[in-house]
Amino acid sequence: MARAPQNTIPTLTTIISLITILSLMNLSVAHYDQYYKNLSPKKLELKQEKLTHLHFYFHDIVSGPKPTAVVVATAKSTNSSSTGFGIVAVLDDLLTGGPEPTSKPVGRAQGITSSASHSEIGLLMVLNYVFTEGKYNGSTLSILGRNAVFSAVREMPIVGGSGLFRFARGYAQARTHTFNTTTRNAVVEYNVYVLHY
């Protein structure tokens, strides 16, 4: 019987060792390259989804000694625009349970609005409703949508939330309750319908 050359066995052992090491490295790299994994909702302790209706009033104060909405940028062409196209404002408006400013506070509306229409007063709203009262204290809802200010009812989407509103989606309906043509201060009634866990 012919014998294998002496140096064949170490070479074969080296090749098998290299293949094993490379296989382990591939497994290791695959593990670190994967930045996601699918989870069961039970893993996050998500229970049955529910629909919640929130009702509150939004106090937009643009004049006086303590405005809650202030213009932070204007376009050069804004002076000639009847719609205020290009104006950007930041706001921190009070949310209350009733229409009066002295009504019980339930939170704040914090974010940015921008006049985004040439043909009418239409705002791009990027807001967080930050709740400070009751069951939803510390939770937030995020709004991203269009607000055609002089329409009787405006509808804007809820695009997310935090706290008890994690995974939230839904819509907010806005109706102007009062608008002072001299001061331009407004109280807006909101009905918000949100699906969440």
TrEMBL record:
The keyword Secreted applies. Keywords: Apoplast, Membrane, Secreted, Transmembrane, Transmembrane helix. It comes from the Eukaryota. The keyword Oxidoreductase does not apply. It is found in: Secreted, Extracellular space, Apoplast. GO terms for cellular component: apoplast. Coiled coil: none annotated. InterPro entries: Allene_oxi_cyc_Dirigent, Dirigent. Its main location: secreted. GO terms for biological process: phenylpropanoid biosynthetic process. Homodimer. Dirigent proteins impart stereoselectivity on the phenoxy radical-coupling reaction, yielding optically active lignans from two molecules of coniferyl alcohol in the biosynthesis of lignans, flavonolignans, and alkaloids and thus plays a central role in plant secondary metabolism. This is Dirigent protein. The lineage of its organism: Eukaryota, Viridiplantae, Streptophyta, Embryophyta, Tracheophyta.
